[in-house]
Write a structure and sequence with these properties.
By secondary structure, this protein is an alpha/beta fold. It has one domain. Strands 1, 2, 3, 4, 5 and 6 form a 6-stranded mixed β-sheet that branches. The radius of gyration is 20 Å and the shape is globular. Strand 5, helix 6 and strand 6 form a beta-alpha-beta unit. The chain is built from 10 helices and 6 strands; from the N terminus they run αααβαβββαβαβαααα. Helices cover 40% and strands 15% of the residues.
């Protein structure tokens, strides 16, 4: 019986060849790649501090340092699976709060440093917004991190520009003439309901718009990881690494 939060045998067979540190690779050969993956999943699922990583996974500092480079490498490779399936893509976002005790980042730099680390100030404290695009199967394609107060429409074109698509789904928050024109210029159909205050109501495929639920389902799935549901990391890079870990588990399903 597998320990709780450990990677399954089936999923391990699919990811093991992507991990560095194998025999013949340049650098140090890893003692146990699977144990390393289990350690990262344990941290991601529980939301515990790295120093509380159980000893069975090895030295917490070694696992932490290695995880920063490995997670992004795995995510970039697996995202090719989603990107290779053109068709319907779905835009969405989720705001992730940060515990007040974690502080706001480095003391120097002020608000400029907060923006660099994708942290924004609001009534509820510090927060980060994760902008997401998934494909027609609900698989993650790309992410963008911004401070929590950033409007979702500002990241739409950046999320779409490197991907192929035939239709783009989004809620009313993405109803912008500039974005609609951009989608059409790419030869695709916008499936975005118009805002109610527009004089000319644009038609859209209401039946297809029901598939909007796919991006919401993806966000709910990655929020099962406590390290994603609440941002504990000081830097945007470290937080995004855990988002990528959660996304990999969805891609493996």
């Amino acid at each position: 019986m597998l320990p709780r939060h450990a990677i399954s045998d089936e999923h391990w067979e699919r990811v093991k060849d992507f991990l560095p540190g194998q025999e013949g690779d340049p650098g140090v050969t890893a003692e146990n790649n699977r144990l390393f993956v289990d350690g990262v999943l344990w941290i991601a699922k529980t939301g515990a501090q790295w120093r509380d990583l159980p000893e069975r996974f090895g030295k917490w500092n070694s696992v932490w340092r290695r995880s920063l480079g490995t997670q992004g490498n795995l995510a970039s490779r697996f995202s090719r699976v989603a990107r290779s399936r053109p068709g319907v893509v779905n835009l969405g976002f989720q705001r992730h709060s940060r515990p007040p005790a974690c502080g706001g980042g480095k003391k120097r730099g002020g608000d400029a440093n907060l923006n660099q680390q994708a942290l924004g100030r609001s009534r509820g404290g510090f927060s980060t917004k994760l902008h997401v695009v998934v494909n027609g199967l609900g698989l993650p394609v790309d992410f963008k991190l911004t401070p929590g107060q950033t409007a979702d429409i500002t990241q739409a074109e950046a999320l779409l520009q490197d991907n192929d698509f035939e239709m783009v789904l989004g809620d009313k928050g993405f109803d912008s003439k500039k974005l609609i024109d951009y989608i059409k210029s790419r030869g695709a159909e916008p499936v975005i309901p118009p805002r109610s205050n527009l004089k000319e109501q644009r038609e859209f495929d209401q039946h297809l718009y029901k598939e909007r639920k796919l991006v919401e389902r993806f966000i709910n799935r990655i929020k099962q990881f406590r390290r994603v549901a609440t941002r504990y990391e000081k830097t945007a890079r470290n937080f995004l690494a855990f988002v990528q870990v959660a996304a990999i588990t969805v891609l493996l399903q």
